[in-house]
Amino acid sequence: VSGVWFNGELVEGPLALAPTDRGLMLGDGLFETIAVRSGTAMWLDEHLARLSAASAELGLDVDADVFGLGLGRIMQCSEAPHEILRITVTRGVTPRGLAAPTQAPSLLFSLTPFEPAKFPPSVRLATSTVRRNEFAPSSRLKTLSYIDAIVAAREVVGKADDALMLNTSGRVACSTVGNVFVLKGKTLMTPAVGEGILPGIARAKILQHAAAWGFDAREEQIEPCALLDADAVFLTNSLRLVTAVTQVDDKTAGGVSVIDLKKKLESIS
Amino acid sequence: VSGVWFNGELVEGPLALAPTDRGLMLGDGLFETIAVRSGTAMWLDEHLARLSAASAELGLDVDADVFGLGLGRIMQCSEAPHEILRITVTRGVTPRGLAAPTQAPSLLFSLTPFEPAKFPPSVRLATSTVRRNEFAPSSRLKTLSYIDAIVAAREVVGKADDALMLNTSGRVACSTVGNVFVLKGKTLMTPAVGEGILPGIARAKILQHAAAWGFDAREEQIEPCALLDADAVFLTNSLRLVTAVTQVDDKTAGGVSVIDLKKKLESIS
What we know:
With 269 residues, chain A is an alpha+beta fold. Chain A has helices at 22-26, 44-58, 64-75, 147-155, 201-209, 259-266, and strands at residues 3-6, 9-10, 15-17, 29-37, 40-41, 82-93, 104-113, 122-127, 162-166, 172-175, 179-184, 187-190, 216-219, 232-237, 241-248, 251-252. In chain A, the strands form two sheets. In chain A, strands 8, 9, 10, 11, 12, 13, 14, 15 and 16 form a nine-stranded mixed beta sheet that branches. In chain A, strands 2-1-7-6-4-5 form a six-stranded antiparallel beta sheet. In chain A, a hairpin with a 5-residue loop joins strand 9 (162-166) and strand 10 (172-175). The longest helix of chain A is centred in the N-terminal third of the chain and has 15 residues, at 44-58. The first copy, chain A, starts with a strand and ends with a helix. Strand 3 (15-17) of chain A pairs antiparallel with strand 3 (15-17) of chain B.
């Protein structure tokens, strides 16, 4: 770990967390994971905008000055060429009751080195029985309540590298760690946010730049069978950027290389 | 707080929690809340059986000796006539990756005084737009990933006392803090576990004793309109036992008193 900042100060070793902090008790909070390259947090404004909008939706009012102070302090800890900045906001301690008013949110920054080369360039997916709930705001917010993705990921261990999650209507939503894109000719499709997905930052960058890169990009409802009929299937997230999908369950998927797209994505700030 | 026990010892003040503990990072864990009356944990075997089954399902392997030691130690802290024992198990710290193998789960016991008289004898419900996901195991496990219930509870503040949650198929599931029962004549109905509900301990006790108490109890699919047509609607949980529902959205519900049922439930161990 390069550094940890919690509720006002840099800390070494364990956090001093209230035993009733709702982040720990109830998964009641939000997070962001941000790629840091040589001390620069990538797409920081976009991550902070998403966190800010989600915080407003959940009523998690973080003091902007404290936030800025913590962010500045943690970034001074940067020491490795590739790091992950994680920002965690919890509802902190409240009176009893699920709807009790927020008093003092907890704020945690951590910076951890990682090796991007360790991420595989391609993955095999297996369809999980766990569905994304497009009828809950949590499906489009990056909340601490991550158990469904964990159960899905555990379910496919030994038969694939990641789980494909459908929504409760049986359409393609996402993988446990990324958004799904499907390429057919020059048409690039990805499920809309209403399908039960997190609006990923890498996803947004691709949608934003697709036309300039020669693609016709659309948010669409995607049936699982469309993955087998595509020229390429790939996952996106802020750390891995673009990961090709070579297999879905026991069938071959994709085929066209997506390395170019990864390079394009790396080049935009 | 009467007492807190964390990973091997009684603690005062904050916990020393690893900043990467998956309970805090990902809502990756389970809990139980148990009524304690004059130092006796009620329905303890049933709560521990549910926790044990859920732990096995999530691969959270807690050392039974450590668990027993902690439980014994926390119960010695009992000092008030009515307390809530909360047991929290998290996946602790693991290597990176959602499906990373569990190494050392964290175990937290806390004992907090409460006044049962403060719970209202009846509540008004408002239907939440947040749906229970009957396509995810988390809907039937008491996991730390509680954000959907929190969002639902927040949604109805100012217009009701608790939120009624439907499942993604639009049928009745539960409230944010209890199972739902519907009484019509002598027929007592409650949604089946497959409808996206936690199999509550008070719920199980009612199903178990219903026949002896003169009811014909069944697990059924329940449409929302059935709540308005019932003789009584009530919620159950381990702390409040039985709470009458008097209103659903802007319509009157129930009518028949459920106080008798509460007394019956209090009398069984």
